[in-house]
Design brief:
- The complex is a heterodimer of chains A (143) and B (184).
- Chain A is of the alpha/beta class.
- Chain A has one domain (2-142): Rossmann fold (3-Layer(aba) Sandwich), CATH 3.40.50.2300.
- Chain A has five helices and six strands.
- Chain A has helices spanning 10-22, 35-43, 64-72, 91-99, 112-131; strands at 2-6, 28-32, 52-56, 81-86, 104-107, 141-142.
- Chain A is globular and about 35 Å long.
- Chain A starts with a strand and ends with a strand.
- By secondary structure, chain B is mainly alpha-helical.
- Chain B folds into two domains: 9-62, no CATH class; 66-183, Arc Repressor Mutant, subunit A (Orthogonal Bundle).
- Chain B is 65% helix and 5% strand.
- Chain B contains nine helices and two strands, in the order αββαααααααα.
- Chain B has helices spanning 9-23, 44-55, 65-83, 92-100, 104-115, 119-136, 142-148, 154-165, 169-183, and strands at 28-32, 35-38.
- Chain B has a two-stranded antiparallel ribbon with strand order 1-2.
- In chain B, a hairpin with a 2-residue loop joins strand 1 (28-32) and strand 2 (35-38).
- The termini of chain B are far apart.
- The chains are: A alpha/beta (143), B mainly alpha (184).
- Chain A binds chain B through residues 91, 95, 98-101, 105, 124-125, 127-128, 132, 134-135, 138, 140-143, and chain B through 74, 116-117, 122, 125-126, 129, 132-133, 136, 164-167, 171-172, 174-176, 178-179, 182.
């Protein structure tokens, strides 16, 4: 699977990418330092469309929420799953991101083992949606 | 006399594949490790001949029977969940082994080995998918949904819904409604 991650915090980027690498699921991972970096990359018509994006909700220049809105307004990325993660667990934040088109909301765990477990579950359910012809319009997963 | 050799197994394998496919006049493209695209129809005899020829080099064509069976298992489950007005009350294990003519043990093993998911998990995801449809498209109440999908109680349906989506059914409905309003 092609996975993109945008997060301004270097430690968090390492945390996420190490957790994904340890899952040994044959994923191709690309990291971005902020939302603007990610959007610049996505603007290139030559790129391979990723399967799933992980966006940190709070980033400078362009927040995960703004990226989400922009990406969802572009038909080119309609099949891409978008996962938002944040330390916030407010119901309002969660619902808001789903309404704007996110598929997955992750309350960021602090513990590495838990994070690995969460990512595994997310990739697993995302794969189910891709491979079993489930309706993407109603694909929401909050963990 | 002793000879010391070094070899590249992958390159060797490619050459063997190429030679054997060409020998049988099979138009093909080697896509990379483990995959060959065959561009036109090949007779059963030639295909069987190819299998035998490759087996000599310990190269095996992965037979399609397993993946076909997995597809049939999935289709049977989806059919059972979607096509009936109400889910049959026989257990799913009984239903699957009767429809597919294999023991349930064999069915679950082959499914788990090949899909990274258990049959039970697949069934739950499919049932919740149907529940989503019934809630949104048919505007059914949770009581009606739980009856249709054979849940023992509304509470059990709600908790399974929450497990699969992380949302309560009412939050789910609220999100979908707001999303539609936004699109209009």
């Amino acid at each position: 699977m092609h996975i993109l991650i945008a997060d301004d915090d270097e430690d968090d980027r390492t945390f996420f990418s190490e957790a994904m690498m340890e899952l040994k699921m044959n994923n191709k991972l690309t990291l971005f330092n902020d939302g603007k970096d990610l959007m610049d990359y996505l603007a290139d018509p030559e790129i391979v469309i990723p399967h799933i994006l992980f966006l940190d909700l709070n980033m400078p220049f362009m927040s995960g929420f703004e990226c989400l809105k922009l990406i969802r307004s572009n038909n080119r990325f309609k099949d891409v799953s978008i996962a938002i993660y944040s330390t916030s667990s407010s119901e309002k934040d969660i619902e808001e991101t789903f309404i704007e088109g996110a598929n997955i909301y992750i309350k960021k765990p602090n513990d590495f083992t838990k994070l690995k477990k969460v990512i595994k579950e997310v990739l697993n359910i995302n794969w189910q949606f891709h491979s079993s012809g489930l309706n993407k319009e109603t694909f929401f997963f909050s963990i | 006399m002793k000879l010391y050799i070094k070899y590249d197994g992958i390159a060797a394998c490619r050459v063997i594949l190429q030679e054997q496919l060409e020998r049988l006049n099979i138009k093909h493209q080697i896509l990379g490790l483990g995959e060959i695209e065959i561009s036109d129809n090949v007779s059963r005899e030639d295909l069987a001949e190819l299998h035998t020829a490759l087996n000599k080099y310990s190269i095996f064509v992965v037979d399609n029977e397993k993946s076909q069976l997995i597809q049939r298992i999935k289709d049977t489950i989806v059919e059972m969940i979607y096509e009936n007005e109400k889910l049959p009350s026989v257990t799913i294990s009984q239903y699957l082994s009767e429809k597919l003519n294999f023991s349930y043990g064999y069915i679950t093993n082959i499914f788990t080995e090949n899909t990274y998911s258990s049959i039970e998990n697949f069934i739950i995801i499919q049932k919740i998918e149907r529940a989503k449809k019934l809630i949104i498209e048919d505007q059914l109440t949770l009581t009606e949904v739980s009856y249709k999908l054979n849940y023992s109680s509304v509470a059990y349906l709600s908790s399974q819904f929450k497990k699969v989506t992380g949302l309560t059914p009412s939050a789910f409905k609220r999100i979908v409604d707001k999303r539609r309003n936004l699109a209009n």
